[in-house]
Design goal:
Chain B: Keywords: 2Fe-2S, Iron, Iron-sulfur, Metal-binding, Oxidoreductase. The complex is a heterodimer of chains A (about 325) and B (about 170). Chain A is an alpha+beta fold and about 325 residues long. In chain A, about 25% of the residues lie in helices and about 20% in strands. Chain A is built from twelve helices and twelve strands. Chain B has two domains: about 90 residues, Ubiquitin-like (UB roll), CATH 3.10.20.30; about 70 residues, DNA polymerase, domain 1 (Orthogonal Bundle), CATH 1.10.150. The radius of gyration of chain B is 17 Å and the shape is elongated. The chains are: A alpha+beta (about 325), B alpha+beta (about 170).
């Protein structure tokens, strides 16, 4: 690890001011940052620990908006009865992520900012446009089974690894960002940057800006929602494919649908074609699979990840049927 | 700032003084900010029960309790743990030195082979029961999935956790 200074923020204002300095890194739970620093994957010379700041870990229903404080811990949020009842997709995305030890430390805000698990980025030596802009992308000629079908380019084919972010993409979500200039909210769809567009940049977050809350518009579709995750082993692994589906139903007929995909794209990926294939239909297995196929109609497979097109379609189909069965 | 003092940079880089509260005792130590809690426990305090496995957050061998919650000490800076109550495998036994019921259950069920992952397994298992996530074999497997056992003693680990969870439930009833 490169040497760095550690300081513990005593106020959000202090943290924002220190974070605006060059080579500063914000740390909350630390589970992703410490690992990145160990691999020399950040230029951090000053770590600002905001993990102990009070008041930023609340989860509350604020009128029509579910407000998740950015410092709420994954494990705690996964246990909230109101959320389990009304937004199972969000709870399941947290329960199926990482391990309980990591969920006890990791925060909702930090989770969104985890970086790709692409082996060529993490190994610290391969050519990687994300790590060393302009150096190339080793995955293009390498082992690309884990790589993206959406949002990739000949500069970067890595996948966004998060489950929570994928589930949030199935709702009307926005991110509250605070800085010395004040507080703003941005649509979740605009928060992450597709790696293929600009490999070195993963979100719109600027130095001095801190994610302070995640805002989800309350919706009856939350009740009929689920997050399905397919992994190489049964637990504690990143998604090979995953899907979040949230439905509004009139009997068996779908009146509104949101579908998002994980494990296959360079950012949390909404699938409007799958949504269109569901709306107006009486939902059964055949309709669900058709929606899954629609989700992957524009997928661009590499040499070793083409199997994800069929697997991903079936993941969407299963999620749609599970969501329908939720009460 | 509780128990943290940043010191002037030396040739070797920044140093700081932190107070870690481990198994009920305060320890003032001077360290490089890069030091993880895992390294501080082992190298500064001599508490080598907490094991270095992957040093990467994937194996669970370094599991300790931070304010009663199981966390990975390899992914936590020691400085970030200042002010929290840290419990390691050395702190599990009762005041009379009697093994914790989970330690006794691991022995009774032969829930280990080489034993290297065992401190992390036991710290995780104690928390798993306390969290209420040991209601069935499937739930135990899911909530213990952050602890890998290279020797694959998993069936006996599940049996040990189930036994302690069962007696805890019987006490609560």
């Amino acid at each position: 690890m490169r040497p760095f200074l550690y300081s513990r923020a005593t106020s959000l204002e202090q943290a924002m001011s220190e974070a605006a300095q060059s080579h500063a890194a914000i740390m909350a739970g630390g589970t992703t940052l410490v690992d990145l620093m160990r691999g020399d994957l950040t230029g951090a010379e000053h770590v600002i620990d905001i993990g102990h700041l009070p008041g930023l870990a609340k989860v509350e229903l604020d009128g029509p908006v579910l407000r998740f404080g950015a410092l709420a811990r994954m494990a705690d949020v996964a246990e909230l009865p109101f959320l389990k009842q009304n937004y199972p997709a969000l709870v399941e995305s947290l329960q199926l992520a990482a391990s309980q030890q990591i969920r006890n430390a990791a925060t909702l805000g930090g989770n969104l900012l985890q970086r790709t698990r692409c082996v060529y980025f993490r190994d610290g030596v391969s050519d990687c446009n994300k790590r060393v802009p302009g150096s190339g992308c080793t995955a293009l000629d390498g082992e690309d089974r884990e790589m993206a079908l959406f949002g990739a380019s000949d500069r970067c084919v890595a996948t966004y690894p998060g489950d929570w972010g994928t589930a949030l993409a199935a709702f009307d979500t926005s991110i509250e960002i605070s800085s010395a200039a004040g507080t703003k909210t941005v649509k979740f769809a605009d928060f992450h940057v597709a790696y293929g567009d600009d490999p070195a940049r993963e979100s719109i977050l600027q130095p001095g800006e801190i994610v302070t809350a995640i805002l989800v518009q309350a919706t009856p579709a939350g009740r009929h929602s689920t997050y399905v995750k397919v992994r190489d082993r049964q637990s504690y692994a990143y998604a090979v494919t995953s899907a979040a589906v949230a439905l509004e139903l009139d009997g068996d007929r779908v009146t509104a649908a949101r579908v998002s995909l994980g494990g296959v794209a360079s950012k949390p990926w909404r699938a409007p074609a799958a949504e269109a294939a569901l709306v107006g239909q009486v939902l059964n297995q055949a309709v669900a699979l058709e929606a899954g196929r629609a989700a992957f109609a524009d997928a661009k497979a590499l040499r070793h990840n083409g199997f994800k097109i069929d697997l991903g379609a079936r993941t969407v189909a299963r999620a749609a049927m599970v969501a329908k069965g939720k009460h | 700032m509780s128990g943290i003092e940043t010191m002037g940079s030396e040739a070797t880089g920044p140093r700081m003084r932190v107070t870690l509260t481990v198994n009920g005792a305060d320890h003032d130590i001077q360290l490089d900010p890069r030091t993880t809690l895992l390294d501080a426990l082992r190298e500064h305090l001599g508490l080598t029960g907490t094991k270095v496995g992957c040093n990467h957050g994937t194996c669970g061998a370094c599991t300790v309790h931070i304010d009663g919650r199981r966390q990975l000490s390899c992914l936590m800076l020691a400085a970030a743990a200042a002010g929290s109550a840290i419990t390691t495998i050395e702190g599990l036994a009762g005041a009379d030195g009697a093994p914790h019921p989970m330690q006794a259950a691991f022995v009774a069920h032969d829930a280990l082979q080489c034993g290297y992952c065992t401190p992390g397994q036991i710290m995780s298992a104690v928390a798993c029961v306390a969290e209420g996530h040991a209601g069935s074999d499937d739930e135990i497997r899911e909530y213990m999935s952050g602890n890998l056992c290279r020797c694959a003693a998993y069936p006996n680990i599940v049996a040990a956790v189930r036994e302690v969870a069962g007696s805890t439930m019987a006490e609560a009833a």
